[in-house]
Amino acid sequence: MNGSRTDEWGRKYMEKYSLYEEFAGRISNLLQNLVEGENIEVYSVFGRAKTPEEFLRTAGTPPTGEQSVLAGIADLCTVKILVSFPDDVAKVEDIVQKEFLADMSRSIPLATLDSPERYGYPAVSYVLSLNRERAALREWAKYRDLPFTLEIRTVLQEAWAANAPKVSLPTDMATKKKMQRKLLRLSALLEEADEGFLSLLEAARESAMPVTVPSSPEPAPFRRKVFDRAALKQYFDERGDVLRRWSDAAVETGFPPFVPSQEYLETSLSYLWDILRAAEMDSMEDLDEFLRSLEEEGRGEEQISTIFKAFEKEASAWKVDGYSALFLLVLNLKWEILQQKDLVELNIKKGSDRIKGVS
Asked: Structural domain boundaries of the chain?
């Protein structure tokens, strides 16, 4: 790119950067829900948008027309899913192929990684976009023309991807060949380790004995229940009245009635999970205590009323479902803790803007 066109395309991407950043968060949440819904253990899901600075460094000479440039660059939004075992990679790949449109000409499916000519320990990679059904939904419509890159890796493949480039430094040809041979041996060891862990898991499952812990008169030591996003969803699934209670309270206060789709609710749950962690409410017991405190002397209703009065002029555009009502209550009642945090980095700002109808 020449200087003037660099500035021009930098500005154009800067204008759309927030959309790509938002898309990265939304698509990461969707993928995590889809994968966990099939009982696949996920090590991590991480999505990010390429920064404008990265875009300018990596973009070549753009063809005419903004759409042909941005819509054609798949790595402006990238999501990475890490799993524990190689067979989980295949399971995630099946989900992806069913739920999204795949550009196979720019993808690396699992079937292509068996080539004896391949170098290193590469991972499955897909260039994807929303399918017609999801793109037709109102809450996804603005992302329908955005492609994204999805990488599906085991934890050991991620170790290869993170470390191999660091040791591939410029050197003389003889040294380079020696290092490449060693890297090839290391990649083979990592692949063997992945397959070995999977074999051990399968053997352990086959040989596991149907033994239960014997009953004991001694009280079992107290253990906190696992508190993650899935546990939070189960918590509210078992207490549907809690969500109705606070969505109704929001409407009674003056916020407009809002009937969200299931996907909208899933995203609201994710933002509630984000703010609970940011507010250092990291156990079921903490959540129970917080919900009980809302009932004391009408504290919850009073706080929602205070929020409505403060934003009454713009409240007609707000979308307050049950999860969002609790998000607002945590935001206000735990502000002493939250104000010390980076609320943009922790997704709290996005969650708040979404409730207010700010795209």
From this structure: 3-165, 229-355
Residue with the two structure tokens 């969002």: 324
Give the Å distances, CA to CA, from 264 to 26, 137, 173, 240.
10, 10, 56, 16
> Residue 187 above 70 pLDDT?
no
| 189 has a pLDDT exceeding 80 | no
In this structure, which long-range contacts are made by residues 6-13, counting pairs with CB atoms below 8 Å and at least 24 apart in sequence? 6/56, 9/55, 9/56, 9/59, 9/62, 9/69, 10/52, 10/55, 10/56, 12/66, 12/69, 12/70, 13/52, 13/55, 13/56, 13/70, 13/76
Buried b (16+ CB within 10 A) or exposed e, 146-176: bbbbbbbbbebbbebbeebeeeeeeeeeeee
Structure tokens at 224: 């906190």
**Closest to 322 (Cα-Cα) out of 254, 253, 272, 263:** 272
Is residue 47 pLDDT above 60, yes or no?
A: yes
Hey, what CATH topology would domain 3-165 get? Beta Polymerase; domain 2 (3.30.460)
Report the chain's mean pLDDT, rounded to a whole number.
83
Rounded-to-integer distance, Cα 6 and Cα 79, Å: 26
Chain segment 319-338, per-residue pLDDT in tens: 999 999 999 999 999 999 99
Decide: 308 and 301 in contact? Cβ < 8 Å: no
Over residues 82-124, the pLDDT tens digits come to 998 989 999 999 999 999 999 999 999 988 887 665 556 778 9
Q: How far apart are CA 5 and CA 106, in angstroms?
A: 27
CA 330 to CA 273: how far, in whole Å?
A: 11
C-alpha neighbours within 13 Å on the C-beta side of residue 301? 11
pLDDT at position 212: 45
